[in-house]
Amino acid sequence: MRARYFYYAIYLVIFFALIGSVVTYVWKLEHSHPPIEYSRFLDNLKNDKVAKVQLKGGWVVLTDKHDQTFQTFSPDISGLMPLLVEKRVRISTEERDQFPLIQLLPITLPFGILLLIILIFVVGNKPRSEEEHATDFAKNKMVNFSTESSPVTFDDVAGIPEAKEELQEIVSFLKDPAPFRRLGANIPRGILLQGPPGTGKTLLARAIAGEAKVPFYSFSGSDFVEMFVGVGASRVRDLFKEAKKHTPCIVFIDEIDAVGASRSGSGAMGGQDERGQTLNALLVNMDGFGRDDTIIVLAATNRPDILDPALLRPGRFDRLVTILPPDVKGRLKILEVHTAAMKFAPDVDLASIAASTPGFTGAELANLVNEAALIASRENKEAIEGRDLNEAKDRIIIGVERKGMVISEDDRRTMAYHEAGHAIVARCLPNSDPIEKITIVPRGRSMGHTQQQQLVDRHAYTKAFLRNRITILMGGRAAEQIGLSQQTTGAEGDLGLATEIANKMVCLWGMDEQLGPLAYSKMDAGFLGGSANQLAFSEHTAQKIDTAVRALVNECYHEAANILQNSQSFLRHLAEILLQTETLDREEMEIIFDCSQKKMAEGADDAEIAHECLICPCTGHCNHLPSSCLSPTTRNA
Q: Of 322, 351, 376, which one is at a domain's C-terminal end?
């Protein structure tokens, strides 16, 4: 690049030197002696009016007796010379009119220097291409630790105590490696953080740098992959070259699966060639650390299953740290971290929120409290209330309430029976999670929702629990059939999820007695979930799998239908009350059930039971309600 600037400068200097020459030549012409006709010159010469002449090639510069100078062109100098000698004129000669370059320096040199400075300034600040950026890529992307800012530390990371304890020795080594080296121990050169999205992998990497107070180089795997082959490998080399100048330091590569995917069977065609070269450069540079190079390579991914085995071997990534969604204690600590600067009303209980959000990651919990703060601020509240957190949780799980949606009375009745069916089946099945909320208010893509509260964090599911889950999902379709003698598309999501669970029970978890404890599919999406991919099996086995899945789902459907057949009165009462209130919680559902049983024993009809057992939002008891309490708007308020 510097050679290119030099050539640009040389070309411009020559160009302006030529321009200077032309300008000087024109200037000299404009300031030359006035011309005279040659015949007049001869007359003056013959009349002794010429004192001296200067011959310049064919040009004659003459000075008369009055010291006036003129010039003319002589077609024959040899013929003119005898006449000049005869008249005794002083003669001086010059071979030709020259404009040596050195005469132009006083004019061209200042312009050349000025333009050279302007050229270097303009071209040096011009945006450069990706190839030119490759030489100083690492330097431009470096993020150094600064004592003036507030770095991320382990105090900002909660809910993953095991991972923090695992990485604490990395911080100790970066601060003082002498105790480790005295015993001959080598700190791991590479640490791979693996886990689902939102669990805090990037935050944990920054916390290590903040605790150790060392430079922190942060990159994404996609930063190394470009359309030009060789650019990514050059960037990797520049990165580690720069890191070795600032040891001890941390190099963090986020989403390393973008550049470190397995090379087996991929060949070297197109973009794979670029990825392969970049991966090879990464492998070579990680092997190139000396014993005294205090460089820790951290990487994060949610697809460890597709990483190249050469990248995961000891000596490169020596340690794998798995970060999973936190348990209830971890969720409580994460909520305490994110709510430290927030103001809450006395009715807010962070422990109950942590218990009601199983499976939430740290990022989702941060989003939950932020949404609650936004909801409270819209209503100009002085503090965040419990209902704000519940509304925020519904927004995240179900979606935003579609208040402007116009729904016919028939569709509302269908939704009420559908959700009532889910709730009754869940209430009657043993060992199932209790109902937390029933609503027929449309949210997101759902027209209604029945939410269960998971009492404990489950890490393994029994066959009985999974069968209950399918049965509860079938309760909506069964309620439509029993209560309204119809089938609608509202059960689409339930049927899809139930079929997926049944498929996994049969093909993935070996829970079918006829097919036995064999796996006919596998999950290969890492921590991203997704559907299972089938393994190779015969057509006869495929028929058995279809039969087993169909039989399992049908058994669960019939079980749900039997439960609802035995609770038809409660199904009708609950659906009618849902049409009036639109939303019920667990306590209200139990009150309605007890009241319904009591009124049925007294011989009351469905209309009387629906009216008598409606929950008053003011008292929380069953009674005769004024018309204002029957309004869904008043009820929801």
A: 322
